[in-house]
Amino acid sequence: MLAVVVDLDGVLRRWDPAVLAGAEAAFGLPAGAVGEVAFPPALLSAAVTGRISDAAWREQVVEQLAWRFGRAGAVGAVARWSVSAGEVDPEVLAVIRGLRARCRVGLLTNATTRLRGDLARLGLAGEVDEVFGTAELGVAKPDPAVFRLVCGRLGVRPGQCGFVDDTAGHVAAAEGGGPGGSPVCVPGRARRFPHRSRAVGSGASGVRPGCGAEPRGPVGPARQGRR
Prior knowledge:
The chain is of the alpha/beta class. 46% of the residues lie in helices and 12% in strands. The strands form two sheets. It has a five-stranded parallel β-sheet with strand order 5-4-1-6-7, with helices on both faces. Helix 7 links the parallel strand 4 (104-109) and strand 5 (130-133). Helix 4 runs antiparallel to helix 5 and helix 6 (90-99) runs parallel beside helix 11. The chain is elongated.
């Protein structure tokens, strides 16, 4: 394996759902109100493919919430929700550091234009060899084109690159990105990633594609419920 490409949300970065729930409660919004307007596929797709900026996405969320619940509560809840950049999973970070001694490691995430700022805040900017944010690429998972694009920029064929993702549909799309790919699915949170990623580096048979993670939508900082 010449390269490994790792997802961010649900693998390297974790989100505490209490952050969003607390923001809604603090400003008098019903539970789930922000997620309901922030994460519909059409709006979120525009944000994570760079058709609108992160700021424009959040402003649209404010406007929709304001129409339903009043502007003061909408502005306050979205502002408080937006403060968090999540937290790093230290076990996964340790694995990534180990992998970099053996192969190139890239980060591929469905993300808005604020991705690089988040990575800087989390201290992750220098922890991978390449960062591929979909808002910059203009295409997002699960489009197979994004996996071909990433392999091309890493200078490897799909069969020389492992993809680690916690969403089963993204794994399936990576498999379709080219012949001989070696995607890895991490069920749920990333607790099982460390020993599997060692297997990616060594070519061991413990890594298997399509391992039945819960299907999720096609977008990333999105999946936070969260941001």
